[in-house]
Amino acid sequence: MKRFKIFLAVFGFAACAASNPAASAGETVRFKTADGCEIEASYQAASSGSYVFVNTHGLGSDRNEWRTLEDRLKKKGYGYLSLDLRGHGRSLRCSGKPADYKTFSPARWAGLSADIRAAADFLKGRKVPQNRLVLCGASIGANLSLKAAAEGLKPAGIVLLSPGLSYAGVEAGAFLKDLGAAPLLLAASENDAYAWESAGYLTVQAKSRNLAAVFRAGTGGHGANMLSEARPELLDYILAWTGKLR
Question: Is this model's pTM higher than 0.85 or not?
């Protein structure tokens, strides 16, 4: 019952973000995953040599939740590729059949890291190497970003907004042992108890494995909802942290 309540709370945060009707900025692009899902995303090229964020939204949301971050990234000369994960937004076909996240089993949720790997392949085609990528995930998107890195992606850094020890069966802690050397930035709000406790625990575990990990307190809310120009502290910190990546 406790896990079910946590699921409902996280879903509520995500559904609120998904209700934003504004279309995401950037060029609309489409690509396929290795297992046949059609992914739609918004792409903004970076200034020469700058980082490109691969933004992965939360459960029940879509790429529109990243608008505040996208605006900041563009102003700084960074690029972005903001995904609609399979079964969300406009990414609703897999192998020619309808895909709806509401029907996903834990095994299918675990497969969504393939969407992030496909995003990296798309960017490779745009002459963006993996060492210029920053994986940025919110809620279950944070867990999936860790999973994609553990499966072999080698980004410059990984931003985890409101990660959870387990979202829809995707267990973040299981991926730490297989990460490369990419620095981690974890953030959660104290009023989001499960994510706050999970992010703190994951930070400690990452440091125990000699990973470069830093925890930052959000100013309220869950996932991408923590990013606000009204209270820009976390936005400012993410951009400053990115500027120090190598």
Answer: yes
